[in-house]
Inverse folding.
């Protein structure tokens, strides 16, 4: 196994753990975005550029934005 691929797998596992154990929803959205970037890197290393493009669009931009908007709506728009 490629050492760079092994490092990417470890980073993805660590990123997933950080996302799961983050308690505040707004911080969790940010860590979810970073996790999406890590997954994109993994998919590029696995030579799946189409999946990587989808992941960078959805996993690191759209989903964290939706979570932040939902948190803002639930909190009543307070800053």
């Amino acid at each position: 196994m490629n050492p760079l691929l092994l490092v990417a797998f470890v980073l993805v596992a660590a990123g997933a753990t950080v996302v799961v154990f983050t308690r505040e929803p707004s911080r969790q959205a940010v860590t979810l975005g970073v996790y999406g970037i890590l997954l994109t890197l993994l998919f590029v290393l696995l030579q799946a550029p189409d999946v990587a493009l989808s992941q960078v669009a959805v996993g690191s931009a759209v989903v964290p934005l939706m979570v932040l908007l939902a948190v803002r709506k639930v909190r009543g728009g307070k800053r």
Remarks:
- The two ends are 47 Å apart (CA to CA).
- The longest helix spans residues 49-74.
